[in-house]
Amino acid sequence: MRFSEFSKKEVVNISDGKCLGCVSDIQFDECRDQIQAIIIRGPAKWFHAIGCDSEYIVAWDRIVRIGPDVILVEVCVDQVLKKL
């Protein structure tokens, strides 16, 4: 799977059923040649019209399943939401 295909998938948290958004980036460990986490843009500010000031960083081991158009994760949203 290419990153361009991966980035079009929506990320859904199975703990509460909410859609977190689409994958915007990944964290990669060069020493181990492994993906460490996926990064999803956080909620937009001001009526979803202006960019966001936070992002969700979901560790690779928190991914439950990667489907044809959805990535299922199990996370506590408060723990993975980081301010930029």
Strand content: over 45%
* Biggest beta sheet attributes: 7 strands, mixed
Helix and strand run:
HEEEEEEHE
Average pLDDT over all residues: 91
How far apart are the first and last residues' alpha carbons, in Å? 29 Å
* Spatial order of strands in the largest sheet: 5-6-1-2-3-4-7
**Residue runs with pLDDT of under 50 for 5 or more positions:** none
Oligomer: single chain
Got a strand count? Answer: 7
- Number of helical segments? 2
Q: Output the structural class.
A: mainly beta
Walk me through the structure.
By secondary structure, the chain is mainly beta. It is built from 2 helices and 7 strands; from the N terminus they run H-E-E-E-E-E-E-H-E. A 7-stranded mixed sheet has the order 5-6-1-2-3-4-7. A hairpin with a 5-residue loop joins strand 1 and strand 2 (19-29). The protein is globular and about 40 Å long. The N and C termini lie far apart (29 Å).
